[in-house]
Every structure is written in structure tokens, then in C-alpha cells.
Amino acid sequence: MAAGKLYQHGTLGGLMAGLFEGTLSIHELLKKGDQGIGTVDSLDGELIVLDGAAFQAKGDGTITALKGEEKVPYAAVASFEPAFQLTIKEKTAADAVKQQIQENMSSTNVFQTVKVTGTFSYVRVRAVEKQEKPYPRLVEAARTQPEFEAEKIKGTIIGFYTPELFQGVAAAGFHLHFLSDDQQFGGHLLDFTLDEGQVSLQMIETVEQHFPVSNATFMGNDIDYANLQEEIDEAEK
Amino acid sequence: MAAGKLYQHGTLGGLMAGLFEGTLSIHELLKKGDQGIGTVDSLDGELIVLDGAAFQAKGDGTITALKGEEKVPYAAVASFEPAFQLTIKEKTAADAVKQQIQENMSSTNVFQTVKVTGTFSYVRVRAVEKQEKPYPRLVEAARTQPEFEAEKIKGTIIGFYTPELFQGVAAAGFHLHFLSDDQQFGGHLLDFTLDEGQVSLQMIETVEQHFPVSNATFMGNDIDYANLQEEIDEAEK
């Protein structure tokens, strides 16, 4: 099985602590991978990277195709070459899909890129809303985030499985975003029912963790990671 | 300040859980950096990489120059270009040296390569002893590890500062090894008094985390990270 490489800019821990300033351009990010997730400057929505194109699912429910100059405070992308594929032919709830994915992963000790394309009878997403400075902690911003639902929709789930040891660096377990085929609906995936679709997986051999070393807020801040585990559980599940 | 790149093979968390099998050759490791630390297959001593050469400080107190075929389960190396230097001209205890280093680091939110060359009036190191399968957890192996002391010795401290968020992936804070100039004394640094010397630092912009994906024990194991924080505190400080 060919192993892949994951590139992460910033950390989930930094994002949870309120580091929402964009520090890497979409243009630079897309050089590092063609599939992935993240957020946009000022926590302005959910980032979805699919097949080399970047989309922003905003708090008002709209989707914007990004042009390249926009900046991200946190994002993870991989150059995806599916190494394992699984077809699901019957209606399957989110937990059961995740269980099938996990059973077919090469290991739970490495990161994995996860992609599910198909028809969904139900999808529920959230999209964080743009924040103003001074930025709150993510858990506070996430408490008022809008949620959106769709039924009978074709689309793609994209994201990563993160091994337990890397909780805080990223979100341990599955961290998945969604974008509909018509690019009109998407966000951070909260729940879904898959009607039929294809799961693709690739394990990650190398994670390239990049820090925003030119950002004074990141470099100078005494980052408060208190309650990080609990805040991730509340905001990212 | 020119920022560097850190390459880490395996994780401290995996090592703490008893993953002691060597999974990357010294030859391959040295392609990734010329300064660093780690351990050797079967937890057979402390690895010290200085100026592109690798040394093994074994549990019997001897130092072996490694040839390249030897394998490591865990190591971190950087291509080091000092971006900050500080000369210490008077006798200074370990804690005060570390405090001076920390005050001069560009940030505590990024990894930093730390090197101190000089004359030491006192150095205390430990060197873990080779383990047999089935491997214990590192904290158990470390409870019986031999310690060694030297006085009036010239040598080099090499290692890394790891930001708090990466505790478990590596050892948060300073993780330092020592090698004497005559290559006869070294190991995991426990304590020292510097008479005079030069501190060199370089911040790390990118960490390349490599996983031993060809190792069945790593891939198949349900790694037990219980008490990881406490075990690192006991075994790595």
C-alpha cells in the first residue's frame, strides 16, 4: 500500500486557543496537497480542499470557491492516492461507516486520509462564524455556530483520522468535512446517513508540521492549552 | 533568523510504550540531519548525533561510534545552522543555563535545536540498557539504568526544546544528550555545571514526523499510552 504525506499548517491546539489569524495562503497550501480540511482567517468558516480546489463553507450557509490569496490559520492537506477502496451499497449510519473505515485502516497508530463519495440521505454540518479581535477561544466561538441540514444529496466527505497520541496537534479520531457535488452545501461534518458510496483510504507515512513562525501573535503568545481535551471534545465532535 | 527543520522517526510515546525495535538505519537518519538524539534498537543506549556522526552511549558506560547499518526505534535530528549564539563565561548550574536558553529562544511555541559546547566542571548522564523481548515499558527499563558522572570535562550538549502541545510526541521542554570531546563519556543528560561555553540555538519551522509503517509491531499494536505524562516525567527528566 503506497503511503502518503500529510502537511499541516498551524495546530488544532493553537486554533482552540484563539489563534485565528491567517498565516498561510491557500495558494501555498495547495502546493502541499490536493485534499484536506481547515479554516480561514478570522475563523471565517470551514475549509474544504477537494481535488486541488479550495472551498469555504461560511457561517451564513453559503459556499465560496477560494482564489488563492486568502489565508488560513490552520489547515491539513494530503496528496491523496487511494490505497484502499470499499464500496458501501446500502443505507448506513455515520457511526457504522466510521466503524467500517476503522476496521479497514492499516493501523490506528498512523494518520489516514479518508474520503467518502456518494449519495447521502441525510447530512448535518456546522460552519463557524467569522470572529472579531480580540478573538475568543474556539470553544466559545463554536457555541453559537450555525448548523445546516440537507437530505438526498450527492457529495464528498474529506478528512483525516488522527492517532490518539496526536490529540491537540490535530483532533484525535476522525475529523471530517463535507462538500456537495453542486458546491452549494458543506461544512464541518456532524452527522450523516450514507445511501451508497465509495470509501477511499490512504495511510500517512510522514506528517509535515509547519509552524507560523512569521506570526508575532503565535510566536509571542503564552498559549493557554488548559482544558484542551475537553474543549476539543466539545467543539470538534 | 533562519529557521530549521526537525526530522523525527517514531515517537517518544511509542518508545515509552515499549516499541524498542529498530526501524530506521543510522545511514538513513543522517540524511535527515546532522545533530540530534535518540536511542538504538532494543533500547541499547543513548544516541548522540553530532556534526553528522552518530554515537551510542551504552549502559556499560562505553561509547561506540556507529557505522550506519544500526537501526533506531526513535530519533530526532536537525540540520543545524546556529541562528543565535550566547557565550557563558562563568560557572553556571544546569537550571540557570536552561533559563538563559529559554529567555533567548525566539518562542516557546516552536521546537528549537539546542547545542552547548564548553568545559564542564560536572556532568551526570544516564544510559539505558539493552532490553530483551518481550520489551517492558520504557519507564520500567529506566528504573534500573546506570548513571555516570564526570568532572572537568570538555564536551557538547545536543538536543531539542519541544513545545508543550507536543508532549508525548516528544518530551516537552528540554531533552538533551551529552558527548565528551574525547568521545569516551556521554548519555542522556541528567545534570551539569558549565564552567564556560557557547550556547547555540536554531528555531524549527517544520517538523517532519516519520512513522515506522513497515514495522508490524507498531502497525498492529494497540499502543497503551496510559500514564504517558507521568511516565515521561519519571523516565525522561
TrEMBL record, chains A, B:
Biological pathway: Polyol metabolism; (R,R)-butane-2,3-diol biosynthesis; (R,R)-butane-2,3-diol from pyruvate: step 2/3
GO molecular function: acetolactate decarboxylase activity
Reactions mediated catalytically: (2S)-2-acetolactate + H(+) = (R)-acetoin + CO2
Gene3D superfamilies assigned: Hypothetical protein, similar to alpha- acetolactate decarboxylase, domain 2
EC id: 4.1.1.5
A Pfam family of this chain: AAL_decarboxy
EC top class named in words: lyase
GO biological process, one term: acetoin biosynthetic process
Keywords: Acetoin biosynthesis, Decarboxylase, Lyase
Similarity remark: Belongs to the alpha-acetolactate decarboxylase family.
PANTHER family hit by this protein: ALPHA-ACETOLACTATE DECARBOXYLASE (PTHR35524:SF1)
Name assigned to this protein: Alpha-acetolactate decarboxylase
Organism: Pisciglobus halotolerans
